[in-house]
Amino acid sequence: MKTVAVTQRVSLVADRAERRDCLDQAWPRFLAACGLVSLALPNVAEVALALCEKGRIAGLVLTGGNDLAALGGDAPERDAVESALLELAEQRRLPVLGICRGMQVIQQRFASPLRRVEGHVTPHQTISIEGRREVVNSYHCYGALESRVPLESWAVADDGVVKAVRHNSRPITGIMWHPERCSPFAPADVALFRRVFEVS
Asked: SS3 string of the chain?
């Protein structure tokens, strides 16, 4: 099985004065269903990069959680880690799949303007995915109403908020729903991950 590096959210534990990295246990289960092994990365840039080099990863998953610092988020170390990981992925032409915040990281990198949006925190939202009406979950308060080259949108909500992007020449994809939160996992999401990371 191929190994993909997976970023983690930062959780603030005030009564212990700790900043913890954490990952929903659904992620390793979902990735295993896609034929992938997950390597959880800490929010320490030099360590995360070293693990990627040593682990011979086949790609990168940028998970959800934590707003971007530019949007008022409180985890700047995560922003730094994911920016460094995107640099590494682009240098090595590794596939990248961004989920929710992860897609926002991709959008920010390629100058797609993000803004506060309403009505996008719901377990069921009907959107248009490549012309088909589909129901997905949605748990974000920021989004974009346009995709700028080299990104192109391939899913959109009824209010115009972009729900999925892909790079026009590099293996970089983003979605604004959480496939790991579905029970059972959606076959279309499993197929997407297998396609992006070239799982045969």
From this structure: CEEEEECCEEEEEHHHCEEEEECCCHHHHHHHHCCEEEEECCCCHHHHHHHHHHHCCCCEEECCCCCCHHHCCCCHHHHHHHHHHHHHHHHHCCCEEEECHHHHHHHHHCCCCCEECCCCEEEEEEEEECCEEEEEEEECCEECCCCCCCEEEEEEECCCCEEEEEECCCCEEEECCCHHHCCCCCHHHHHHHHHHCCCC
